[in-house]
Amino acid sequence: MVTTNTPDITAVSPATITVKDTPGYRVFRAVNGFVLVVITFLTLYPFVNMVAKAFSSQAYIAAGQVNLWPRGFNLTTFASVMGDSIFWVNYRNTVVYTLLATAIAMALTTTFAYALSKPYLKGRGVLIGLAMVTMLYAGGLIPNYLLIDALGFKNTMWAIVVPGAINVFNLLVMKSFFDNFPKDLEEAAEIDGMSQFGVFFRIVLPLSKAVIATMTLFYAVQFWNSWFQAYLYLNDRDMYPVTLYLRNLLAAATSTTDLGSDTVQIQANVQSVAMLLTVLPIVCVYPFIQKYFVSGVMLGSVKG
Amino acid sequence: MARGTGTVDAVPRTGAGRPGRGAGGSAVGTGPLPPQQLRNSDTWRVSLRKHWRLYTFVVLPVVFLLVFRYVPMIGNVIAFRRYRPGGSMFGDEWVGLHYFEMFIGSKPFWDVFWNTVILGGLTLAICFPLPIILALMLNELRSRLFKRVVQTITYLPHFMSIVIVAGMVFQLTAINGTINQIIEGFGGEAIPFMQRADWFRTIYLTSEVWQTVGWGTILYLAALTTIDEQLYEASRIDGANRWQQTWHITLPGIRPTMMVLLILNIGSFMAVGFEKVLLLYNPLTYDTADVLSTYLYRVGIGEGGNYSFAAAIGLFEALIGVALVVTANQISKRAVGASLW
Known about the structure:
The complex is a heterodimer of chains A (about 300) and B (about 350). Chain A is mostly helical and about 300 residues long. Chain A is built from 16 helices and no strands. Chain A is about 70% helix and about 0% strand. The radius of gyration of chain A is 25 Å and the shape is globular. Chain B folds into two domains: about 1-75, no CATH class; about 105-335, MetI-like (MetI-like fold), CATH 1.10.3720.10. The interface between A and B is large, with 134 and 129 residues.
């Protein structure tokens, strides 16, 4: 449903019906294609380099010989990172936080968006305004920190899974989806004696799988990637998400000011393995979810 | 989506009572009335009685917004009040503009202020136009497969955690990293990039370009598809070449999108990538890297615990941001008729 509502950005471009190209334009197109290949390569390079280092031995990395391909191929770094129990504890935390935070966020966002999409909801304008204002300004770092402290959320997982619950952009995307939901279906169900709860849970939700999937992914990626909340509010190493584990690994490797030595590179393969394992879930689902993200962004921009 | 439905289910049960009370306890007997019969002229009492179920959907989200978004906004009063550890989050006694005078008169504040302006200005100058150029380049491609491959790959960095991006930056700029290998390959000497203040802005901006430009093309590519094909045909008949078509048809066609994104970019001008700077900087690079948000983080939470002073700086930064976005919006509305509101 989402995809049909949005323009196809891969549609045939104006250039395809040009009758005849001038020589100058042919040169331009060749250069254009070449530049795009270079851009694509440069975008991909940091990933390639990361994978290469993850499988390389420290000696080759320290000698500055690992770029595109692994040298001194080995899996021992993987074994050592995966053998670190705290890594797995933190990895599991990330999974738990992501699932929980996404569930909370989806519950609040879906119900709120549905209610806001009903023109007969009195006070709707005020409620939309209430949400929109938070897009402009959300309080700032210090007051938020003091709030979490005052609520007693510090060093609990609630500090991680609750505060991100309503992303107003996502809310508006969902609202615009529900705005376009066929009214006849809902009315028919109500005439058949279904309550608004029944309509929402048994008619609307099952027919909104596409937008729900999109929003779930939006939230899940956001929560999977977050680290700063944890950095700010958690003290206990056993509660860290894996992003914070990684951040501390990077900080440990770069904290020494003496850089003549290979302090950074000593841990480069360990860093690479931890990074690789952290991005792996996202990279794996990315090809399948990319179009949902694109259509979600456009749905939000066109209507929101 | 069984999980999603299950969790959504929990919401009305927890919040069910409240709107019913608001309707005078007479929430029963709501018939299967078609919603459209209710007009705006209905009173709150009638509206609540007929749609109390819908209002239960609103309760938790509104409580959430009030607690986690509006309480912190009010919490900014701490910038005008003295905070006592263990005391109220809203502070204990009024001190007026004491904390504002404190930072206005301090040199470190103005150093980070100008750092913020420079870094924000450079980000705007580079990260705003590049997506437009990339979108136009993609638009010239005839192979849909090639276009799709380029898009898929350039969107990818957008989905990476900032921690991952920072890790990649550290690795590529390391003394034995790829960039220094290239420099040494040309006979130069390796540079400890992350320890050098004069390199910080370049590194920050490069990583920002890497992460945002591909994803930034989406809205432009969408806008490009909405341009009327007949305009191009007509211009070709008039003898316009590809460049003239781009200049006179394509660019005006995506101008509203450009203006809206420009306004949004200007609005986030002062809030330069706080998390990224926090991950990438170190005391050696503070001279160029330290920005308002990282400075207030350090004096407030990181080292100082001086909440009021930091909150005053945060409020100042936010006010500039709001002022910028409002101004940009007004100018854009007058000049080209495109605006956010």
